[in-house]
């Protein structure tokens, strides 16, 4: 069964850090670019970050640049999202997904570029 599983979410104070993991089962993750997305209550799902298949290219939404870092460990079949200097506006359910593309497109954080999705992990930033 092809599955993506996110983990690492939780409650953190403003300025704190969390590391999210996206683990694949039933398939080899290194064949895919991976994107992280988030959805806050009452808002549309938005792209946060993307990493190419090799890990040599990364992309970030302006809202998280300089604070979030995406990485991958293909040997562990896992992609990570390190989130530092968290803000209350980062509160959302975070999802990872596999890219439909082999070559990173012009707009790599568009939802339609992604196929398999995980179930999400909740991140809450609050004092």
Fraction in helix: under 10%
Order of helices and strands: EEEEEEEEEEE
What does the average pLDDT come to? 95
Strand residue content: over 45%
What does this structure look like?
With 127 residues, this protein is mainly β. The protein has strands at 3-7, 10-12, 18-25, 34-39, 46-51, 58-60, 68-73, 78-83, 92-99, 114-117, 121-125. A hairpin with a 6-residue loop joins strand 4 and strand 5 (46-51). The mean pLDDT is 95.
Task: Give structural attributes.
single chain; 127 residues; seven-stranded mixed sheet; four-stranded antiparallel sheet; 11 strands
Any chance you could write out the topology, listing elements then pairs?
Layout lengths: L2 E5 L2 E3 L5 E8 L8 E6 L6 E6 L6 E3 L7 E6 L4 E6 L8 E8 L14 E4 L3 E5 L2
Parallel strand pairs: 2-11
Antiparallel strand pairs: 1-3, 3-8, 4-5, 4-9, 5-6, 7-8, 9-10, 9-11
Please give a quick description of this structure.
This protein is mostly beta strands and 127 residues long. Helices cover 0% and strands 47% of the residues. It is built from no helices and eleven strands.
